[in-house]
TrEMBL record:
GO terms for biological process: carnitine biosynthetic process. This is DUF971 domain-containing protein. CDD domains: CAS_like. Its cofactor is Fe(2+); L-ascorbate. Residues 111-348 form the TauD/TfdA-like domain. GO terms for molecular function: metal ion binding; trimethyllysine dioxygenase activity. Keywords: Dioxygenase, Iron, Metal-binding, Oxidoreductase. It comes from Salinicola corii.
């Protein structure tokens, strides 16, 4: 493919225009200079910058530009010369996240096999790409031991420890210190929004389940947020602009944090939802602002509890859900035990280690962000 480059006239020579076929990209001279891929600018081993970018002159300009089809050769007004590979410039653009929004019509759940993901990088990559794409994945064949999830956790990074320790029990007990330890149903929620940082991924491993009830409920918070944006844009804007607070207090912990129920990234896309009725503590905002907030929150709640947006899988012993706690709203139906005990084990793994493993595997084995291993 022919490539055309030119220094754009009328910009004080501070912009480079690159045309590849029908695609045109513009680059700022200072942006290019601070990324010059040479040993004077970037450390060859670490790729970290050696020069102080903030000290470069703001009027830095381009003097010469040329391209041989694979590399762009530039000369800057400070005398520095650099050669950029075209494919390296392409990689500087952040890849769009592959988030497939879903509702109750999702007929095939993203799934993985514990043993395969433990032994095979290809299987682990597929599991992590599924998790990124859908916000959850169901894992089968998990060992029926208290720490059965740990070998797979350790393939990603450390387990996140909290005031409850590492992996915690989720089962009905007398004098429960948390509503998860009762037999009542739990409304859709995200976990621990009172922490900073909020745990990134929930690992929920079933050792035994109730004979009646105890089904999991899953709702895609990104889908619900986009439905709200479409159907009630004023409510959507309110929930993105109003910061609420969350608090958890017991004899040994006092945890507080804040943030909006719907959080947007720099491009205006939904990148996090928070919802936890049990721990939300709305600040004493002006009454008029609270009128809007309560109405908007009610509209969002109607969506995340709507049957048409909710999946209700029931975990069997040896099955595990891994859930994106920045996206997925999970709960459960009420249950009754005629015998035995409903016993699940839950742990948290942070986002940075999970994302790092996924992206490293994608680079090493060429895993596609669209690859997915599904089963009914």
């Amino acid at each position: 493919m022919d490539v055309f480059v030119e220094i754009i006239p009328g910009t004080y020579a501070r912009q480079l225009r690159v045309v590849e076929g029908s695609r045109e990209t513009r680059f700022h001279a200072l942006w290019l200079r601070e990324r010059a891929p040479d040993a004077e600018t970037l450390d060859p081993r670490t790729g970290q910058r050696l020069i102080e970018a903030a000290a470069l002159p703001l009027d830095l300009a381009l003097v010469e530009a040329g391209c041989d089809g694979e590399k762009i050769e530039l000369t800057f007004s400070d005398g520095h010369q650099a050669r950029f590979a075209l494919h390296d410039l392409d990689r500087e653009w952040p890849a769009d996240a592959v988030h497939e929004r879903w509702d109750a019509s999702l007929t095939r759940m993203p799934s993985a096999d514990f043993t395969h993901a433990l032994k095979s990088d290809d299987a682990l990559a597929e599991m992590l790409e599924s998790l990124e794409r859908y916000g959850f994945v169901k894992v089968s064949s998990v060992p029926l031991t208290l720490d059965g999830m740990m070998p797979l956790v350790e393939r990603l990074g450390p387990l996140r420890r909290t005031n409850w320790g590492g992996i915690a029990d989720v089962k009905s007990i007398a004098e429960a210190f948390d509503l998860t330890m009762t037999q009542r149903g739990l409304e859709p929620h995200t976990d621990n929004p009172y922490r900073d940082p909020i745990p990134g991924y929930i690992w929920l491993h079933c050792l035994s389940n109730a004979d009646s009830g105890g089904d999991s409920t899953l709702a895609d918070g990104f889908m619900a947020a986009e439905r709200l944006r479409r159907d009630d844009p004023d409510a959507f804007e309110c929930l993105t602009r109003t910061s609420t607070r969350f608090r958890y207090v017991d004899d040994e912990a006092h945890l507080e944090s804040e943030g909006p129920l719907i959080e947007l990234d720099a491009r205006g896309e939904v990148n996090r939802v928070r919802y936890n009725n049990r721990t939300e503590r709305v600040p004493p905002l002006p009454p008029e602002q609270l009128d809007r907030y309560y109405a908007a929150r009610r509209a969002f709640f109607a969506l995340i509890t709507a049957p048409e947006l909710t999946l209700t899988p029931k975990l069997a012993p040896g099955e595990m859900l891994i859930m994106d706690n920045y996206r997925l709203l999970h709960g459960r139906t009420a249950f009754r035990l005629s015998q035995g005990i409903r016993h699940l084990r839950q742990g948290y793994v942070d986002r940075d280690t999970t994302a790092s493993r996924r992206l490293t595997l994608r680079r090493q084995i060429g895993a596609s962000p669209y690859s997915l291993q599904e089963s009914a």
